[in-house]
Amino acid sequence: MDEASAAMAPPGVAGTPSPGHAPSLQAASFQAGEIPDEIRAKVEDGTALLRQGRFAEAADLFGDAIAARPDWPMPYNNLAVALRGMGRLEEALLACAAALRHRPDYPEAFANLARILLAQNRYRDAALAAEEAAKLRPDHSAMHALRAMALFKDKAPAEALPVCRAALALDPAGTEVLAVQAQALDAVGRSAEALSAARRGAALDPSRRESLIVLGSLLVNRNHRDEALEVYRRAMELNPDDTVLAHLVHAIAGTTSAKAPEAYVANVFDSYADRFDEHLVKTLQYKAHEIVARTAVAALPAAFSADGGARILDIGCGTGLCGPILRPAASRLVGVDLSARMLDKARDRSLYDLLAQAELVQFMTGTDERFDAVVSADVLCYIGDLTEVFRAAAGVLAPGGLLAFTVERQEEPGYRLTPSGRYVHGLDHLRSSARGLFRARTIDNVILRTEASVPVHGYLCMFQRLPHAVH
């Protein structure tokens, strides 16, 4: 497979060079013609397996090729693709490094390195690797598109835009880069151009889900909900099992489900982690973490101070905004969250004795620990039916223990999924979920934050576990 053919292989994959195409390995320490046919065949077979998603089998074949010809860079690069497909990202980085050690001017290896770094959320490093790939293959639109994506994810949309233009000059029908361009234009406030780019990308390839999802999100942001719903439903037809997209469809259509999918919540907060604290507290004037944490600490019995503090569980701890308030009152402070990137931020605070990546109900039902207080700030708005949350909290709390949380408020009974993708709750649902498990100590009306200069109203709730709660 020559370099032109390799561009059509799975992302980052290079095939073996055919005789007469030795220039693609000019930096290698040998000529392509010296590669034995049986070793060349292993790499060709491995590349075919990659296309089928059979990463472990492909990795074995690339490993055999490397063992036979350890100075040949191509199997290292393709091994990196296989390892990335298996989620073994650190090993994939080592394989990429080996490919580049043997051939420092290997554009596909730099592109593959960029994709691995993107998967590790190392966006600036990914942008630098993609830049090297684009320098080596300036006529290859995919290299520029990869760099644009990395820059956009690194919160540099203005830098991404000229790179998008370079990619589109080479391939005006590049749907991947049009999706990046649309999001970058939206991020810099050029909303009309953003919507135009998104529409163009979706029209060029109606079977590309990512383009439809980008278009749908821009339409939602502009309150074009009917059209957004149509676009999201088209995307759903391409993958009916996509629970994240199904949640968005429910939210826009006004139908209610029991809870947001775990993948949806994790995706939202993984992408939000780097700017979460500043945006939430400064821009949205977020107050939920302060009011719920201070309320919980104030309600703790004085006896805990004499004993060195209370055992506190922070469910949906996020970046640890509640930590500075809870830590002085805690003998043990445990945080739980679905988002790995939010937990990384919480870990940087060095306030928690334990941080666990888990769904909150599963954590509470699975742990042997017992706590004196469970705290949840602006988290239960991603769960509609709170029955299991109350039951799990009752199981993890000591008798008399406190459950303090906020939810977004509605005057109507029950709970409802809103177009934001979050749920609002009525008082009756809170009381019925607590029945037989907790008594309500306080339920106060509060303002949780502002959105588009409009206050978001909620309930600040404090429940106390009954001594003989049956859960």
TrEMBL record:
Say which domain of life the source belongs to. Answer: Bacteria
Pfam families, alphabetically?
A: Methyltransf_11, TPR_16
**Keyword tRNA processing attached:** no
TPR repeat positions: 107-140, 209-242
GO BP annotations listed? cell division; protein ubiquitination
**What CDD domains does the entry give?**
AdoMet_MTases
Query: Residue ranges of the Methyltransferase type domain?
Result: 313-405
Q: Which InterPro entries match?
A: Methyltransf_11, SAM-dependent_MTases_sf, TPR-like_helical_dom_sf, TPR_rpt
The UniProt annotation puts the region (Disordered) at 1-25
* Keywords, in A-Z order: TPR repeat
**GO MF terms on file?**
S-adenosylmethionine-dependent methyltransferase activity
* PANTHER family from the UniProt entry: ANAPHASE-PROMOTING COMPLEX SUBUNIT 7, CELL DIVISION CYCLE 16,23,27
Write down what this protein is called: Methyltransferase type 11 domain-containing protein
